[in-house]
Amino acid sequence: MPRYDYLCKECGPFIQWLKISEVTDSVDCPNCDQQSKRMYSAPGLIFTPQALRQRIERGGEPKIVKRESHSHEGGCSHHGHSHGKQTHTHQHAAKRPWMVGH
């Protein structure tokens, strides 16, 4: 149920929780039963601190993952690089036919 604010001339402001179908411009005050007019105010906005807003926005962006580079020192026998010998075969070709050798 939505909250509505009303102002009684005798008792001051009060809150009424009413169904939308029950809302009127005036209601009886719960304390003194006088007709009280509805008060209109700006909606309650919550302002998020800039640091929190930026953190939320960054959370939606994909994270960059860096690949580990492997060293080619001493010959790279498992990738089929030819370092003097042509006997190496590329082992990834069978598993990944779309992969271009390097």
Which key phrases capture this entry?
102 residues, alpha+beta, 4 strands, 20% strand
Summarize this structure briefly:
The protein has 102 residues and is of the alpha+beta class. It has helices at 50-59, 92-95, and strands at 3-8, 12-17, 26-28, 35-39.
Describe what you observe in this structure.
With 102 residues, the chain is of the alpha+beta class. 14% of the residues lie in helices and 20% in strands. It contains two helices and four strands; from the N terminus they run ββββαα. It has helices spanning 50-59, 92-95, and strands at residues 3-8, 12-17, 26-28, 35-39. It has a four-stranded antiparallel sheet with strand order 2-1-4-3, with no helix packed on it. A hairpin with a 6-residue loop joins strand 3 (26-28) and strand 4. The radius of gyration is 36 Å and the shape is rod-shaped. The model has no long low-confidence stretch (mean pLDDT 76).
Q: What is the tally of helical segments?
A: 2
Query: What coarse outline follows from CA principal-axis ratios?
Result: rod-shaped
What multimeric state do the chains show? Answer: single chain
Q: Characterize the biggest β-sheet.
A: 4 strands, antiparallel
Q: Based on DSSP secondary structure assignment, what is the total number of beta strands?
A: 4
- Average pLDDT metric: 76
Q: For the CA atoms, what is the radius of gyration?
A: 36 Å
β-strand percent reads 15-25%
Question: Which structural class do the helices and strands define?
Answer: alpha+beta
Helix content: 10-25%
What distance lies between the first and last C-alpha atoms, to the nearest angstrom? Answer: 66 Å
Order of helices and strands: EEEEHH
Low-confidence stretches: none
| Spatial order of the strands forming the largest sheet | 2-1-4-3
